[in-house]
Amino acid sequence: MIFVGDGALLRRAVAHAADRGHPVDLVCSSDPADAAGAGPHLAVGADVNAHAGALAAASGDGIVWSLNNKRIFRAPVLSLGLRLYNVHNGLLPRHRGLPSVAVLHAVLHGHREYGATLHEVDAGIDTGRVLAERRFPIGPEDRFHQVMLRGIRACQQVFEEQLPAVAAGRATPAAVPAAGPSAYHGVRDLDRLAHWRDHPAYARATDLGPFAAHAPELAEALRRLS
After folding, report:
1. How many other β-carbons are positioned within 10 Å of the β-carbon of residue 102?
2. What three-state secondary structure class fits 57?
3. Which pLDDT tens digit goes with each residue over 78-90?
4. Less Cβ crowding at N or C end of the chain, within 10 Å?
5. Where does the record place the Formyl transferase N-terminal domain (predicted)?
């Protein structure tokens, strides 16, 4: 298995897979510590597609996991015949894009639930077939950092629950209703953040708490408004 991403969620997934006897062929991230001593590390910047040859050479089972990964898979990686799976912090297709911006809008728009989704990777952004999801409610007083933390925990749970099926080639599309209409949440949404300042949920939606350092685009947008 190859893992692509960054941070604690990636590290936990790598360690979990290795502990259960799944070979970790390569870990692609910006920090060597993400490999958790479970396999070789490849330093990867913003463009993982520039390393397509390394991924093809390293892969033993054809499986690539994407966790906490802002990199977009495009050619030539998509044409290598690998099975690419992304664990997304958000319910698809309603919360496509950057999780930090998706959580912001989920709270602002009064969404009643959030969660994590395992989906196949295709040429779009968070548009591949949904294989599994884990949902949880958003309470009327929940703040950004609370929803984000539950989303990260849900990502870890989805990965651990679905790892055996993916490894065995038994992962199938989930028979679950769509979370809502498709919506993409990216950095351009933050240009309109000032329009929400008088919204009753604004304070809750922008309370980043300990995630300020992990949502730099949102933190910078809020700094400009302060």
Report:
1. 29
2. helix
3. 999 999 999 999 9
4. C
5. 75-157
